């Protein structure tokens, strides 16, 4: 039997590949973005509590009401806008939220603008719709959005623009001026906006997260996606959510009900309780900034040049002073020979742009970061 692949150019993700190599060679894994420290004991206890209380059957399709109310209150606290509960949908991680949104509105022949370097799932999901991902490269030095290039990329086929802040892989963040530009380009058009904000609470150096939800104009045409896995360093729980206006939610729910239908019930009740204490999510920026600063300090004296992260738990490092190897080859060599796994950033570009930059995850214990830095400084 011969099968015609719907994703002929897609293999295993670079994250899976590098984590597998790290395991095979006994390397320190700073590649895939997952913490090596525990979830808060209080949150784990709450999940167990609700399991014992019998909350183990199907919860409501859109999410437990307590959790959706808690999410709405958190958004009001963070962005001075209170969404209706009906505008909140709990999903299986942010990736389901992104998949549902693109699948609901992007049709064969449409175009979707993405910002390169871009999280690799965007293009694959767009391809599955028979649509085209139109890449606009971010500015090379600070990874800011090149708005004139975005405007030039818009055609009568443009159905959606995807933005991501704090940005994976660069750690860059968007400004209020960026949101104004996005408002200008999309106002009075049929263009929808998908805003990937999974690292919303991980911003550094006194900066604020500028959510699309803070813009009254953009809220009319936008869906924002979020991740409890990133916020509460529980990536294996696969818990996320999205927020959007009524006319978009109606279509997204159609996809959700035939995709995952609903999400792990006891975790929803537990997170609803946990959100009642804002410090549980507002304190994580300081925690991750300490880790970023520790890693940067530990790397002082190395030949790597950091592109300082403003958010996320990723740090880019320019290795051009060390080697002229292509970044994929360099990442593999580091894993095998030096014992530290990282992610090459060329895989985030549609054109494979290679800037001799690697992405390191610093969501690790200090012992892990120091051991990795010691190895890297040998180069």
Automatic annotation (TrEMBL):
Q: Which InterPro entries match?
A: Aminotransferase_I/II_large, Kynurenine-oxoglutarate_AT, PyrdxlP-dep_Trfase, PyrdxlP-dep_Trfase_major, PyrdxlP-dep_Trfase_small
Q: Which Pfam families match?
A: Aminotran_1_2 (PF00155)
**Superkingdom of this protein's organism:** Bacteria
Aminotransferase class I/classII large domain residues:
28-376
Which GO molecular function entries does the Swiss-Prot or TrEMBL record give?
Answer: kynurenine-oxoglutarate transaminase activity; pyridoxal phosphate binding
Which cofactors are named for this entry?
Answer: pyridoxal 5'-phosphate
Key words, A-Z? Aminotransferase, Pyridoxal phosphate, Transferase
Q: What is one GO cellular-component annotation here?
A: cytoplasm
Q: Where is the signal peptide?
A: none
Extract the PANTHER family matched here: FI04487P
Family the entry assigns: Belongs to the class-I pyridoxal-phosphate-dependent aminotransferase family.
| Name of this chain's protein | Aminotransferase
């Amino acid at each position: 039997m011969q099968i015609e692949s719907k994703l002929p150019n897609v293999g295993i993700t670079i994250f899976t590949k590098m984590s597998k190599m790290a395991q095979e060679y006994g390397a320190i894994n700073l590649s895939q973005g997952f913490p090596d420290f525990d979830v808060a004991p209080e949150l784990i206890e709450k999940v167990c509590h609700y399991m014992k209380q019998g909350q183990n059957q199907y919860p409501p399709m859109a999410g437990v009401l307590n959790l959706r109310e808690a999410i709405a209150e958190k958004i009001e606290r963070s962005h001075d806008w209170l969404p209706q509960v009906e505008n909140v949908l709990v999903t299986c991680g942010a990736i389901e939220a992104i998949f549902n949104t693109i699948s609901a509105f992007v049709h064969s022949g449409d175009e979707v603008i993405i910002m390169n370097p871009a999280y690799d799932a965007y293009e694959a999901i767009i391809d599955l719709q028979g649509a085209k991902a139109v890449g606009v490269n971010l500015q090379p030095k600070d990874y800011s959005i090149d708005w004139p290039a975005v405007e030039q990329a818009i055609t009568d086929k443009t159905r959606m623009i995807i933005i991501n802040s704090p940005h994976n892989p660069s750690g860059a963040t968007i400004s209020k001026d960026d949101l104004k530009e996005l408002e200008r380009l999309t106002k009075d058009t049929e263009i929808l906006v998908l805003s990937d904000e999974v690292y919303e609470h991980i911003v550094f150096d006194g900066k604020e997260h500028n959510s699309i939800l803070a813009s009254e104009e953009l809220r009319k045409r936008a869906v924002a996606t979020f991740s409890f896995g990133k916020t509460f360093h529980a990536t294996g729980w696969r818990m996320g959510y999205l927020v959007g206006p009524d006319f978009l939610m109606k279509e997204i729910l159609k996809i959700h009900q035939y995709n995952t239908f609903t999400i792990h019930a006891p975790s929803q009740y537990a997170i609803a309780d946990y959100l009642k204490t804002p410090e549980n999510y507002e304190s994580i920026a300081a925690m991750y900034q300490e880790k970023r600063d520790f890693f940067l300090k530990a790397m002082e004296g190395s030949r790597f040049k950091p592109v300082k992260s403003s958010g996320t738990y990723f740090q880019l490092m320019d290795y051009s002073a060390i080697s002229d190897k292509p970044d994929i080859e360099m990442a593999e060599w580091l894993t095998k020979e030096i014992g530290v796994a990282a992610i090459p950033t060329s895989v985030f570009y549609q054109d494979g742009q290679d800037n001799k930059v690697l992405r390191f995850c610093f969501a690790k214990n200090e012992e892990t970061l120091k051991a990795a830095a010691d190895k890297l400084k040998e180069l």
